[in-house]
Amino acid sequence: MNTLSTYSKEEKTEMLRRYRALIEVWHTRKDVTDIWMVRKAFRLAADAHKDMRRKSGEPYIFHPLEVATIAAGEIGLGRTSIICALLHDVVEDTEYRLSDIEAMFGEQIARIIDGLTKIDELVGEADIKSMQAENYRKILLTMSYDVRVILIKLADRLHNMRTLDSMPPVKQLKIASETSFLYAPLANRLGLYAVKSELDDLSMKYIEPAVYQSIRRKMAESREDREVRVNAFVSPVSNALKKMDVRFRVLNQDKTAHSIWQRMKEKEIPFEEIYDTFVVRFVIDCPIELEKIECWRVYATITQFYRPNNDRLRDWISLPKANGYESLHATVMSNSGKWIEVQIRTEKMEEIAEKGYAAYWKYKDSPNSESGLDEWLSKVRELLNTEDVSAIDFIDNFKLNLFSDEIFVFTPKGKMISLPVGSTALDFAYNIHSSIGNSCIGANVNHKLVPLNYSLKSGDQVEIITSKVQQPKEEWFDFVVTARAKSRLKEGIRDLRKSYKDMGRDKLEGWFKQLNMEPSKQNILHLIDIEEVSGIVDLYYFAAIDRISLAKVRAAFKEKPGTGILKYLTNPFSRSKPKEEADIVQQEKKDALIKPSLINQQMDEMNYTVSTCCNPIPGDEVVALYFPDEPLHIHRTNCPKARNLMSQYGNNIVKAKWKQKEDIAFLAGLKMTGIDSVGFLHRLTQIISIDIGLNIRSMQLESTGGVVELIITVYVKNSQQLKDMIASLRKIKEIRKVSRLERLSDADTAS
Hints:
Elements: H1 9-25, H2 32-48, H3 62-74, H4 79-87, H5 90-93, H6 98-105, H7 107-116, H8 131-143, H9 148-162, H10 169-189, H11 193-207, H12 209-221, H13 223-243, E1 248-254, H14 257-267, E2 278-284, H15 291-305, E3 307-308, E4 314-315, E5 328-333, E6 339-346, H16 347-355, H17 357-362, H18 373-386, H19 391-402, E7 406-410, E8 416-420, H20 425-432, H21 434-438, E9 440-445, E10 448-450, E11 462-466, H22 483-498, H23 501-514, H24 521-531, H25 536-544, H26 550-556, E12 559-560, E13 564-565, H27 576-594, E14 598-600, E15 608-610, E16 622-625, E17 632-636, H28 640-648, E18 653-658, E19 666-675, H29 680-691, E20 695-704, E21 707-716, H30 719-729, E22 735-740, H31 746-749
Parallel strand pairs: 2-6, 15-17
Antiparallel strand pairs: 1-2, 3-5, 4-5, 5-6, 7-8, 9-10, 9-11, 12-13, 14-18, 16-17, 16-18, 19-21, 19-22, 20-21
C-alpha cells in the first residue's frame, strides 16, 4: 500500500478497516485462493482509483468497498461477485480496459463488469432517444447471461442512494426517480425485500422530502406505544408456543415510510388511522420437511387468542411468489381493539426473504424448495432475446411483464400457469403455443364461454377454443398484455401477410401496367411512403385485400401544377388538423389560466406548460423537463409521470422553483367524504367563501345512503393556503375525509 501516496495515513487505515469488514461479512466459500483473488482485486481498485474522490470528498475506493460489502453481507454473494463489485467502476472511470481485467481475472468476471459499464454518453447520443433506457437495456441484456450483473448493480445503487446527500438537487431527483422506476422493482422481483424497501424509502426521501420526514417523525413519536402493544400481544402466544416445544423467535419490524405513505394514499386516510405501521414476525426453527406443518401450527396458536381477518390471510407457503418468497401473512384483532399484522415463516424462508436470489439457490435442491424463480428468469431471457423495439418500449414491456403482480390460472388438465395481472384469454392461448393463439376464437373459463379479451383472475381454469379459419388480427394488440403474446401475434401477422405476397405483387404490377408505369424500386418505395405502410410485405398484403386500389396508386403519382409529387401536399380536410388546433386552443386557455412564473439555474422565462397530470401550484416542489422544440414541462416532483420521465431522461431535468406573484390564482381540487345532513353544504361553502375568502370554481356532489361524496375546485394562491383550507374543513364534524385531487379533469382546467 506504500505506493498509494495520494491516500493519507487516516484514509489508508479506514480503507483497511473497510476491507476487513468486507472479509468478515463474506460467508460463502472462502478458501486461500478465494481470499487471494479478492485481495488482488482490492489492491487493483485502490490503485486505479487513487486519484479520484467522491462528491463528499472521501476517497473513491470507499464506494467499491461498500458495494462489495453489501453484495457479500446483505445479498449473500460470493467471490466472483465481490471481485466484480470491487472493480465495477475501474473500466468506466480509469485507464484500465476490459482486456486487462480478463487477463488478470478471467473472461467471466470481465463479461460481468462489461454489463455493469455504462454506454458511452458521448458516442451517438444524438441518435439515442434516452441514454438511461439504453443503459437499462444493456444491464438487463447482460442479466440473461449472468443474473449477478443486476445483483451487483443493485448493491451499487443502494450505496449510491445511501450517500446521495452530497449530490446536487437535480442529480438527486434523477437518481431517486430511476431507482423507484427500475431498481426497486428489480430488487423486489429478485426477492431482495430488505434492499427493495430501503431503495423505496431513500427514493421517497428525495422525491417527497416533506412527507418522508413527517412520517419518520410520527413513527418515532409512536414507537414507545407500539412496543407496549407488541409486548402485550406476543406474551400469551409465546407462552403457548414454548409449552408446545416450538423453537422460534419474534421480530417487531416497523414498516418503511414509503409503504406507510402508499397505504395512506390508497386508503385516503391520515397516518393516525393506519393500523399496520409495523409487523410482528414469528420465525420458526424447524426441519425443512416440517415447514408447512409448523407454520400452520403457529397460526392456529395465534388464532386461539386473537380473532383473524380471513380477508387478509395470504398463504405464500402453499403457492410461493415467483421470486421464491414464502410466508404466511395474517391480520388479527388484538385485545386493545387494534388490528395487528402477523407474518409466520421459517428460518429458511426468512433468509430467502432477506437475501432473495442468492439464498434461493442455497436451498434449491432441498425438499419442497420448488419456486417460480426459475420460470421468472426464463421469462426474463425470453423477453430479452425476442424484443426488437426501442429502448424505452423495451423497458416499458419489461416492467409490465416482469414487475407486475401475478395471477395463477389452470389448464383443463390442472397445470398451473402464472401470468401478469390483467392478462386475457388470448394471452393464455399464446402462452401455450403460437398456433393456438393465432387460431383462438374464444375460451371457456370455469366452463363459461368468454371472449378473447376477457381478463383472467387467479384460480380460473381456462380451455381455449380454436378454429381453422381464424387468423391473427391487428386489433388483438389492443388487449394482449404479455410480451410473449405480443411477439407471437406480431410474428403470426407477419407470416399471414407474407402468404399474400404473390397475389399482391401481381395486382400491383397490373395496376402499374394500366398506368403505363414501371414497377421499379423507386416507384414501389414512393407508394410505400404515400400509403404509410411499414414495408413491401404490408404493401403487397394491402393490395391483395384491396385496402390499396388502382385509384390510390393513380392518386399517389398524380402531379399538381406548381407542386410536383403529391407526397408534399397535405389534406386540409384531414381529421388531425382540427384536433391539433383544438388542442392548441385548449392548452392556451390552460396556460392563460394557471401560468406561473418560474426561474431556474439554466433557463429564464422560457416557454413552458403546467402539466395537468399533477396540477402543481406555488409552494409545491416542482421540476421542469426539457425536450427539443417543446416548451418546458412543469410537474410536481412526486408526480408518477414525472418520475418515469426523469428516470429515462435524466439529462433533461431542469430544477425549477416558483416566483411568487400575489395577483395570480391557481386552480386546485379537493375530494371529500362525509355524513349528509341539513345545512352541510351551507357550512362548507361558508368556510371556503366567507371565512377563508376563496373563490369556488366548480362543485360535484353525490349523496347515497346518508353518505355524501363531494369534489370541489377552488382558486388558491399557493399550497399553504390549500393546506389551511383542508385543516379548516376537517374541523367540520360531518366530514370524514378530505384529500387533494392530484389530477383535474379537462372540464375543470379549461377556461
